[in-house]
Amino acid sequence: MKSILKSLIVTILTAEARLLLRRTKPKIVAITGSVGKTSTKDAIYHVLKNKVRTRKSEKSYNSDIGVPLSILGLDNAWQNPFHWFKNIIDGLLHALFPGNYPEVLVLEMGVDRPGDMKRLASWVKPDIVVLTRLPSVPVHVEYFSSPEAVIAEKRALVEALKDDGVLIYNHDDEAVLEVAEQTRQRSIGYSRYSESDFVVKGDEVIYKDGSPKGMGFTIHSNGESAKCTLLGAIGVAHTYNFSAATAVASCFNISLNDSAVALQDFIPPPGRMRLIEGIKNTVIIDDTYNSSPVAVERSLSTLKEIKGFNRKVAVLGDMLELGRFSVGEHERVGIQAEECTDLLITIGIRSRGIAEAALEAGMSEKNILQYEEATQAGKELQNLLQPGDIVLIKGSQSMRMEKIVEEIMANPAEAENLLVRQSRAWKDIS
After folding, report:
1. How far is it, in rounded angstroms, from Cα 377 to Cα 25?
2. Residue 235 region, left (φ>0) first, then alpha (ψ -120 to 50), else beta?
3. Are residues 267 and 232 in contact, defined by beta-carbon separation less than 8 angstroms?
4. pLDDT grade for 1, boundaries at 50, 70 and 90
5. SS3 for 255?
6. Which of 191, 287, 293, 401 is most open to solvent, judged by the fewest CB atoms within 10 Å of its CB?
7. 103: left (phi over 0), alpha (psi -120 to 50) or beta
8. pTM for this structure?
9. Do the Cβ atoms of 398 and 291 come closer than 8 Å?
């Protein structure tokens, strides 16, 4: 019954969203990929919002129901049938009387199952597509026949690009580069490690009193350059977010320097390598939004590069929806963790493979701890931490790793503003 009701709601909201798009004809910037969609979307919005009337997808509303909600400007009603009924009425009113509708929509578009993107791309025709990363083992691969099938599904959005549209793509990613080379529309590359239209160089962590406070880097494009500073977060992933945002901005005649100025006060969404003060004079790297092999690899590499700490602690939860790749990918993470950490804590059944691989790679058994779930781990971690530790916390959404951050953050009263999944709907899920 629930699935039938959901299908009905999706059908109605989609029809209303399609009507609204036909009537208002906004420019559509659509972001997809297996890593970094939400942070990239938010950075793009941050650059555009003061130059042109812009709306973005809220949070990670990127599904068959999230995209229509974003277009219509409605909230997720979760399990409240009365709120869904109100959404349907409000959606119709918005479609019939759009008023001062945004000139640009910045929409995150994702996939969970085969056919998801093709259904969205059948009616959302973007002017600009931003393609972030297509790793060899993407998240959600469990529900597809192969990683290539995931790439093909996401590629449907690129194929929906308007004839005069533009593809903004990650030039460092081989699979993405292959898609770009086969695209007939104009394409603009962004990168960190290879030469492209918008390339980041010289990224480094900013320290104050021996503690990381953020990062700085320079974006180069067409003989121009602009220095960027990001406070409150670290990690190479953010260099991609910024360079992608400046590339999109160029399509709206916003200069590189103006983009860099606009991004000065940008704060990434919660759970994306955010720096949080921990108890006992520790620092937390909160990367708890979600997890996948390539994302964990990036996070551990950042942890390894950090300087000046007593111990480097990694708290890693299960990476879900990897299907037949799960065992091998957890083991691969364990090998990397042995090289990057002094204390390894794993959460969940699948992450036992991380612990076992780290042990086999040479990590001392006394420096490896395993837990079944996040709450207990968080409480015990309070006693395990020592002054001067830096703690990376990461895991898939269902592992609820943000509960660990809340247990060890210096000011838990700030959890609602700083952490992911703090809404009542999430809080009601144990």
Report:
1. 50
2. left
3. yes
4. very low
5. coil
6. 191
7. alpha
8. 0.95
9. no
